[in-house]
Structure formats: structure tokens, C-alpha cells
């Protein structure tokens, strides 16, 4: 199993509490001890970060490049009343920041999620400020909406819109036997929406924002399984000008960290793309990024999946068994092609998130029946190619991305559906063109710098 030196904060604290306490002092040297005047603190951060400006994707006064922080301020008394004094029956879950409670705002009656900072936890005032700043300035349908905050005395709380369906992790892992598994189309829709959230951070925010903590537990689901990214405490502003990366202490969750970031602390938007690839593999396989209950050699999802990408006869063994074969074979090949590219060892070989969005938007809009029989080796030799054919394809310079998209594009419909197939082929060709162009540009930049 691969070992990247970035662990979940709670796990690291258990393993080495003295080191974690030392790291807190290292990471937060300038964190204020009293931020009751939060707005002025955020203004200083805005000035330091070159006046963050955004090209919005939604309309309204929030969307102007000079949008000011619109989050409400709450007193601790108000939020205690909203959560019935943080009663256990209002408890929703717990993360690195602290406990999350369901609440009703008095007056408006709005249902909200209230996150209370654990003063003994790893995340502190700095992460609190970063999250208020980021979510007050960044607005997108696939980012969770920050309603307000509380900086009352020593209390630090964040108030979000309530996400009725919980997190993606709740629907993928340790699911009760009586709950129906997410179907294929819903999984692709979630992946496409989450990718659009990352695309907004990488391509629309100026300077770009690197999320740095992309994982299934940080993807919240609204009605209709609309995904929204949450928990921006670890987000960093990306490189600007001629800089290729930002250097920072390694933070994140074991199993999701890009290898180059874990080894060097050099952070780029491609680090987020790797993490996205891990989550996308979770959606396809139903497995956890790290699962100690699996047999040796299968505990790390990426380490287990990578060898299977080289043999199309084993592609179906990657699929979540709870789907019971209800998925389009073309869609599976294309999804695995995207996942394979995202988790490449070399950052330059990974696609940009905009290319991923292009491919996944096509997958999410497929509406195919899932009751078709799985292809058999004796009846579909081209789809289930031999290793020799794989090697020949590699010798001709065609990537796994090209192979999988080509397989996914094979015609199975009757001539009467030729117009529909033409549209599909056009979408596949567009995805291939975008990804290949961006990949070649990234590779050329990488070669020039080395």
C-alpha cells in the first residue's frame, strides 16, 4: 500500500500528539487570539492576497468582482438557541474543524448546519478565517453557501445552508443493507458537479484557489443529489505570475494526497485533480480510499486499481458490486479513462479540471438502459482486448485515454439511431481533443522546466 506523508488530522494526533501540537504552533504563528473584529481581519487578508477578484457564474450583487463579505454575524446565544443548546439529537457529524449540528434560525425559521470549532482540535483561528473569507467571496452552485459566522469571545462557529442528504461518504461507504445503492447515473452526476466546483476554484477565481482537501466526506449532497464542496479551512491561493506552484506544509487526508505534494510540499491545481481522481474511483468502485479491512495489497484504492487499468478484461472487476451490472459498458470505459488520467504519478500528465468537466458532463448526460448483458470474450473480442493488443496500442502512441474513449464510442445501436450516435461521437471527439491538447501543453511546460 502506498504511503504518502499526509494523514487525516485526527489520526495523526492519535499517533503523535506532541508532534501535532508542535505543528499547530508552526502553522498558525500569526493567527489572532481574539478575532471578534473578524471583518477587519478578513480585509487584511484580502489586501495581502492581491485583492481577490472573481468572475461569477451566478447573477446578483454578490457576483461583482468587488463583492464584499455578505455573511451574517451571529451571537453564540443565537446559535445555541437555534440548536436547542447543541443537544445530541441535533448532532449531524464531526470533522477536523469540530462538531456539526442541525439548527433552526429564530425569526426566519431557516434550517441550517452549525459547525462549532473544537478549541482543542487541529484546526484553529487561521482555518476559521480562511473559510469565512473563501466562502464569503466564492459563490457557485457547486460550493456550499456560508450563511454566517460567530466570533463571540472564545467561540468560533460557522453557519451553512443545510444539506439534506449528508455527505457523499454517507452514501458510498458503510451503507446499511436496507438502503439502495447510488445508481450509475447519479454517481456520474455527482462526479460532474463536484468537478465543476473545482473548475470554478481553479479557472474562475483570480488568483486560483487550490482546495487541498478534496475527499468524499467534504462533498455534501443537496436535494436531487446536487453536490457541493464544503470545508475550505485548508484552501490555499494558487500560484500567480510565472510561479508554477506554492510551497506549503503538507496537509490533507491520507489516501487523497497527490504524491508530489506529499513528498515535496509543492502544491498546484493538479494536486486537486489527483484527489478528484481518487474520489471518482470511490464512486466507480464503492471502495474507500484507504480501507484496512481489505486484504493486503488492496487497502490503498489507487495502488489496487492501477494494475487493473492495463487489462480491459478486468475493467468490470473495478465496478461497485452493489450496482449488480446496471451500468453502460461504454460509460464504464470512459469513466475509468478519466480516473486513470487523474491519478497519474506525474502531475504534468494529469488533465486540467476543465477537461475533466468536459468528459464528465457527457457521461452525466447519458441515459442508457443498464439491463444489457455484459460483453463476453467470445462475442466481443475487440472490447476485451488481449495484453498483446494493449502493448501494440502503446507502441503506436495511443494513450489509455484514447483507447478507452475509442472503445466507449463503438456503435451498438441500430442504423435508425445514427443521428443520436453522431452526437455522442462528436462529444467523445471533443473530450479527446481537449484532453490531448491540454496534456501536450502541460507536458511541454514540464519538459521546459526540467
UniProtKB/TrEMBL annotation:
Annotated protein name in UniProt: non-specific serine/threonine protein kinase
All copies of domain Protein kinase, residue ranges: 86-363
Membrane topology (UniProt): Lipid-anchor
Feature: compositional bias, Basic and acidic residues: 15-28, 54-65
Assigned protein family: Belongs to the protein kinase superfamily. Ser/Thr protein kinase family.
Localization, UniProt: Cell membrane
GO molecular function terms noted in the UniProt entry: ATP binding; protein kinase activity; protein serine/threonine kinase activity
Lipid biosynthesis in keyword set: no
GO cellular component, one term: plasma membrane
Key words, A-Z: ATP-binding, Cell membrane, Kinase, Lipoprotein, Membrane, Nucleotide-binding, Palmitate, Phosphoprotein, Plant defense, Serine/threonine-protein kinase, Transferase
Superkingdom as given in the UniProt entry: Eukaryota
One Pfam family cited in the UniProt record for this chain: Pkinase
Gene Ontology biological-process annotations: innate immune response; pattern recognition receptor signaling pathway
Record-listed E.C. numbers: 2.7.11.1
Binding-site residues, ATP: 115
Enzyme class name: transferase
Xref: SUPFAM superfamilies: Protein kinase-like (PK-like) (SSF56112)
Organism taxonomic ancestry: Eukaryota, Viridiplantae, Streptophyta, Embryophyta, Tracheophyta
Organism (species): Lactuca sativa (Garden lettuce)
Catalytic reaction(s) noted: L-threonyl-[protein] + ATP = O-phospho-L-threonyl-[protein] + ADP + H(+); L-seryl-[protein] + ATP = O-phospho-L-seryl-[protein] + ADP + H(+)
Positions of the UniProt region annotated as Disordered: 15-67
Gene3D superfamilies in alphabetical order: Phosphorylase Kinase, domain 1 (3.30.200.20), Transferase(Phosphotransferase) domain 1 (1.10.510.10)
